[in-house]
């Protein structure tokens, strides 16, 4: 069975997955990298950067689910680039020549362009479709494996509201951003459809998992 | 040293400490008692109700700090009664003849009335003063012990914004209320003044403590 999953979306205590004022120089706006410092400390991150060391506990364990069993990613236009990226014909995402996806990646955007093949197995596809339809395309490309909904918060909220997510991992970071894009807005009663577990880490982060009830 | 503390304020994942539509029949609005069910399961709560049984783990341990070392409580008008309580001369709070405070309790309100002495050591005082001034009055009544800021969320936010809180215990309950009164609004950067720890419980609740840095 091919699931639809969200992995390692980091949010502040007040629920913001990205800050205010996103730009090419500040992909997460005024949040900077503060939502992701817990990741940089792990072995998983160090390996990805080709460096030794890093922590091997709860944080690392959750991060290792990022690629496991994933056959495709579906992301929102706001994750692929800063506001206005579609006006730059050379924009190929934030991640350099070898993006960390290594699967087909579908970008939901009104600004379609031909697919871009990157190093390491990542191909960017640009589609203009409603959530359920886009998910079908990603599912087909995933070849029986799971589809990761990669964010940002707006697309995750849309997929949650449409009850299209089977499993979600959120990392709550103990900071208060005060402003930005909320992951929770408009999702009253979401707990009725999911089994929710919380696991706090010595790093200060709390991992929250949502598993669709009865799955 | 007499500290200013917040104990066991329960909030939803999306940060609401009380729901929408508070009334005499629904003190927490559409949230009902869903924010407090974790408390009802503990030994601490059972003892308070004169019943045997209850859990004795992390949740219970945090709850036992409620009265420990507290000499007075300061609460907002919205905690003392439903909207319009000041128009009822017989209103003496939600808690019956023997309220669970057992200390002087200061109610911040524009509608002053004479003190009300209740059973069990609780006396309600009604004061109309800015936060720091009200805190002075409660501190004096606390006789060297700590002052608890009892809520609701609006007064806690005010005291946090004024950096008047030394220690705070928040319990995050895994539900999404969607609407209500937020505990976090307008507190960007609060983490700079506090050491923050998170401890998840088997009940699903995550306890978050804020301790003023350097305390």
Structure description:
Chain A is an alpha/beta fold and 215 residues long. The first copy, chain A, has one domain (4-212): Dihydrofolate Reductase, subunit A, CATH 3.40.430. Chain A has helices spanning 37-40, 43-48, 58-63, 77-80, 131-141, 153-161; strands at residues 4-12, 16-18, 70-76, 104-108, 116-117, 123-127, 146-151, 167-173, 181-182, 194-200, 206-212. Chain A has a 9-stranded mixed sheet. In chain A, strands 2-9 form a two-stranded antiparallel ribbon. In chain A, a hairpin with a 5-residue loop joins strand 10 (194-200) and strand 11 (206-212). The first copy, chain A, is globular and about 45 Å long. The mean pLDDT of chain A is 96. At the A-B interface, strand 10 of A face strand 10 of B. Chains A, B: This is DNA-binding protein.
CATH class designation of chain A: Alpha Beta
CATH 2nd-level architecture of chain A: 3-Layer(aba) Sandwich
Question: What is the C-alpha radius of gyration of chain A, as a whole number of Å?
Answer: 17 Å
What is the CATH topology descriptor of chain A?
A: Dihydrofolate Reductase, subunit A
What is the N-to-C order of secondary-structure elements of chain A (H for helix, E for strand)? EEHHHEHEEEHEHEEEE
Count of domain modules of chain A = 1
GO molecular function (chains A, B): 5-amino-6-(5-phosphoribosylamino)uracil reductase activity; DNA binding
Protein name (chains A, B): DNA-binding protein
Domain Bacterial bifunctional deaminase-reductase C-terminal (chains A, B): 9-187
GO biological process, one term (chains A, B): riboflavin biosynthetic process
């Amino acid at each position: 069975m091919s699931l639809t999953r969200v992995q390692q979306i980091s949010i502040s205590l007040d629920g913001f997955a990205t800050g205010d004022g996103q730009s090419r120089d500040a992909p997460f706006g005024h949040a900077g990298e503060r939502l992701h410092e817990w990741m940089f400390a792990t072995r998983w991150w160090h390996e990805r950067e080709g460096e030794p060391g890093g922590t091997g506990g709860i944080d690392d364990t959750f991060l290792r689910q990022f690629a496991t069993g994933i056959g495709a990613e579906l992301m929102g236009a706001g994750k692929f680039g800063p506001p206005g990226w579609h006006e730059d014909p050379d924009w190929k995402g934030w991640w350099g020549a070898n993006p960390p996806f290594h699967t087909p990646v579908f970008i939901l955007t009104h600004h379609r362009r031909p697919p871009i093949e990157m190093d390491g197995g990542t191909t960017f596809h640009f589609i203009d479709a409603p959530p359920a339809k886009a998910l079908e395309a990603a599912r087909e490309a995933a070849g029986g494996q799971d589809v990761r909904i990669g964010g940002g918060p707006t697309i995750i909220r849309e997929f949650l509201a449409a009850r299209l997510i089977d499993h979600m991992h959120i990392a709550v970071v103990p900071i208060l951003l005060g402003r930005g894009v909320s992951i929770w807005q408009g999702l009253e009663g979401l707990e009725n459809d999911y089994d929710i577990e919380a696991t706090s880490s010595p790093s200060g982060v709390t991992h929250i998992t949502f598993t669709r009830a009865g799955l």
